[in-house]
Amino acid sequence: MTARLYLYDTTLRDGQQTQGVQFSTPEKIRIAGMLDRLGMDYIEGGWPGANPTDSAFFDAAPATRATLTAFGMTKRAGVSAENDDVLAAVTNAGTPAVCLVGKTHDFHVTTALGISLDDNVDNISRSVAHLVAQGREALFDAEHFFDGWKANRAYALSCLQAALTAGARWIVLCDTNGGTLPVEIHDIVAEVISAGIPGDRLGIHTHNDTANAVAGSLAAVDAGARQIQGTLNGLGERCGNANLVTLLPILLLKEPYASAYETGVAKEALKGLVTVSRQLDDILNRVPTKQAPFVGASAFAHKAGLHASAILKDPTTYEHVDPSLVGNERVIPMSNQAGQSNLRRRLADAGLEVEKGDPALSAILNEVKRREDQGYTYDSAQASFELLARRALGQMPRFFEVERYRVTVERRKDETGTVRSYSEAVVVVDVDGEKRLSVAESLETSEQDSGPVDALSRALAKDLGKYQDLIAEVRLVDFKVRITHGGTGAVTRVIIDSEDGQGQRWSTVGVSANIIDASFEALLDALSWKLLHAHAALLDAPAAD
Amino acid sequence: MTARLYLYDTTLRDGQQTQGVQFSTPEKIRIAGMLDRLGMDYIEGGWPGANPTDSAFFDAAPATRATLTAFGMTKRAGVSAENDDVLAAVTNAGTPAVCLVGKTHDFHVTTALGISLDDNVDNISRSVAHLVAQGREALFDAEHFFDGWKANRAYALSCLQAALTAGARWIVLCDTNGGTLPVEIHDIVAEVISAGIPGDRLGIHTHNDTANAVAGSLAAVDAGARQIQGTLNGLGERCGNANLVTLLPILLLKEPYASAYETGVAKEALKGLVTVSRQLDDILNRVPTKQAPFVGASAFAHKAGLHASAILKDPTTYEHVDPSLVGNERVIPMSNQAGQSNLRRRLADAGLEVEKGDPALSAILNEVKRREDQGYTYDSAQASFELLARRALGQMPRFFEVERYRVTVERRKDETGTVRSYSEAVVVVDVDGEKRLSVAESLETSEQDSGPVDALSRALAKDLGKYQDLIAEVRLVDFKVRITHGGTGAVTRVIIDSEDGQGQRWSTVGVSANIIDASFEALLDALSWKLLHAHAALLDAPAAD
């Protein structure tokens, strides 16, 4: 016998409270589609009337299998539910479900709202009844519930009962401050159920202020709650909301939850979890969190030499779930601690089979170590790692050589008096003994990233002779810069992500005290890697040193 | 009656398993000092003999109030504890305490070690007895304990009993795979105690693979365990270890823990928690996690307009602890959702008092909005925000104006045939109607960051006439670059942190499709902000547009 757990996503509403996050309407529509395909039961789209973006989203509301839900607050005192214009804006969005937040903590009722405790109960009751009368599914978000329960249990309970009696499908217990610890959440949810609110009408809404948002949600489910509210990637006010990207695999893959509950999310959909998480980061221009549970690039990375060699024998030794179930991959990163078994595994990933005990292995390890000391990192620049290894193995063809380059950025007034920038790069390369000079410019008006790195990239890729066709469609899709330390002082590390016409993506690294040199090194590696893989026949080119 | 909880830090050992983390010996010594001042009971310094850095750390071991602990593994089968050279390297470090990891999961004993179950118990027993005979405090890390308990309870228990009987002070239950959920950790710890291992001899070691490392530690304490192992900032293999930076304020400030337990950490020391967390990030060249509980820049940031106005009335309305108790600060960030109360608060932080209802407020909000659409962010660039606001309020003096600049980077062979880079910048400024041309170069040999931004920074700061003395000691201390989106395409956002001779630090932002232009804009703001604050008398300079 499994119980049904309902998943309620509030990425588009509470998630938007994250510092630095502001979704556009098209982004909201795209995210709603992602959530719907994942199998959420409810998608909270925003607060109609509170801001133009949210209103526009509901005007253009996509058709979803999930129940689209509008968020708002209970009616104000002194006006009827029918005549409250804030509430009207919410119901006018026409969604099948509406979630209204209301106070349940006596202190907030008297201090923040400045109304009587009875008036607040009446507001809850009449607002919910108004939704039900309109044929909507009504949800009641009990704000500050846990603090309210601890301060005045009878009053907090009377607020829940008012919503329930008025016909609310769900009463959601919100830990608005994020301060209630899992053991308390468990006990209070159990007490609420004992007091007469059925568990299958109770939801939980937690925040991550003590790093316990996921644990608090699970504790509420353990105690009998049957709806979980959360967000993708744990977006949300302050430290964020409960992270659904973490909760989904726990609920579907891990005991004691997988056997006890079922959700609207199919196991098959979980395989898209890494993609969903990264797509949201892309929309937000955020660097994905490496250490994120299940979906992070490090979540299945085995750095310790002992772990790595055990993993090669049997993955279950150090992995609590199979990474492929959530669309993730096992990683055996390079590092000072990495043993040769790590390295052989990583080389095999790059298609390079090297025998155990081959002296080239320690030569590669030493070279990686030497470069890591200078500030390079190969954890996230697999393409540069492959080139390094091929050079050490004498398996790297010499396609071309750069003799010199020069790049100039000038900012001044143009003939019309407008201040403009001009970037120009000259690159001199030697292809098969033939010298080729290329010049390119990058103008401020370009739709793409413009400036010196773009100019260098264009000049470098302008004329590589017989290799030209192979790199024609390569483009720079991301560019990350960090000041780091290596050798005697600060250096700049540039990681470039490149893409070709077939959607293939690869990452390269460059390090220098000079940001332009570091960028150029990463650009060079990017083109070299593409040339290497573009055509097997190229492997017949003469080997470099 | 409060029980004593012991805190065991493994930042220097398990924390070093983080992808991309490799501490140097001086860094280890510095971190050990931070941990000791914080009040940790145990500091695990590493595995002597496993790598040169760890051995060097113990050779130079700092004097600590905390019990310095060396990590290793139980002796191998077929050799006595006295003759095991791996174990000898560990004990030779001469620390008062030694923690040895050993197997307790039957599958790992037979598969990974390839020895009999009895031999493994014997290895545990003799290794611990060997430590005790040397007068060391012995700790036993029971690897994969929870999985082992579920697979073969009797065997797992016999391993713990062997260690206990041999004289181990602590038996640490390790959830090595990170896959055990808090409810299971609670139940298994309770069962272990029922089976005869005293709770005040039990420790807990969790990983964050399900985002429950903190919750799992608390669940073990709830069940009776009395030692917690964790790391600063949750460093560690895969998704990290239990984060002591989160656990400390929970244990000291929050119920039901604060009243039930005492630790070796003083409440006063917690006020340095943000500093400790940031110092570690600095050592690792990591960008601090904004959403980190308690210590993140967003942990007490109130974005929602409703929250922000309630916070202004009474901070306890939306804060679960006082941010000053952990050395953090309340933040009312700018954003599209921010109301005028947010803005006035933020202006007040910059020393700008603007009356409620002043039309300048909506002018500033609109300007912030317009620039955020272009890719600017003011959440983390308070100095640029202040300049924007002052310009809108007509309170920004015009110190100087840049007429034009040009920067060139050239990479070529020098007269000796060595490939070298040369960066040169020309900046033309107008100070009080007088044109000043400055040229500066940045050489690859510089100890500081070199290259075009450095050259521009030097040229810009070379001759600002009468303002020159005020900016003499300004230096660029961090430089962050992100590709973001604004308007019609990708743009580059640069955030520069600057510092002056008095240790004052401030952040400015620049945005452009051209990385050099974006950097220059942030550099300009950095100098303007310094000039503004350097001398009150400067406020008499003529106001700009």
Write up this protein.
The first copy, chain A, has 3 domains: 3-265, Aldolase class I (TIM Barrel, Alpha-Beta Barrel); 305-391, no CATH class; 401-540, Double Stranded RNA Binding Domain (2-Layer Sandwich), CATH 3.30.160.270. The N and C termini of chain A lie far apart (67 Å). Chain A is built from 20 helices and 16 strands. The model of chain A has no long low-confidence stretch (mean pLDDT 89). In chain A, α5 (117-133) runs parallel beside α7 (153-165), α17 crosses α20 and α18 runs parallel beside α20 (515-534). The first copy, chain A, has helices spanning 25-38, 52-59, 85-91, 106-113, 117-133, 145-151, 153-165, 182-194, 213-223, 244-253, 257-260, 267-270, 273-284, 305-313, 340-349, 359-374, 382-393, 452-460, 468-471, 515-534, and strands at residues 3-4, 6-9, 42-46, 67-73, 97-103, 137-143, 170-174, 202-205, 227-230, 261-262, 401-413, 419-431, 434-443, 475-486, 489-499, 505-512. The first copy, chain A, is α/β, with parallel strands linked by helices and 545 residues long. In chain A, a hairpin with a 5-residue loop joins β15 (489-499) and β16. In chain A, strands 2-3-4-5-6-7-8-9 form an 8-stranded parallel β-barrel, surrounded by 7 helices. The longest helix of chain A is centred in the C-terminal third of the chain and has 20 residues, at 515-534. At the A-B interface, α4, α8, α9, α14 and β11 of A face α4, α8, α9, α14 and β11 of B. β11 of chain A pairs antiparallel with β11 (401-413) of chain B. Chains A, B: Its EC number is 2.3.3.21. Chains A, B: This is Citramalate synthase. Chains A, B: InterPro entries: 2-isopropylmalate_synth_dimer, AIPM/Hcit_synth_CS, Aldolase_TIM, Citramal_synthase, LeuA/HCS_post-cat, LeuA_allosteric_dom_sf, PYR_CT.
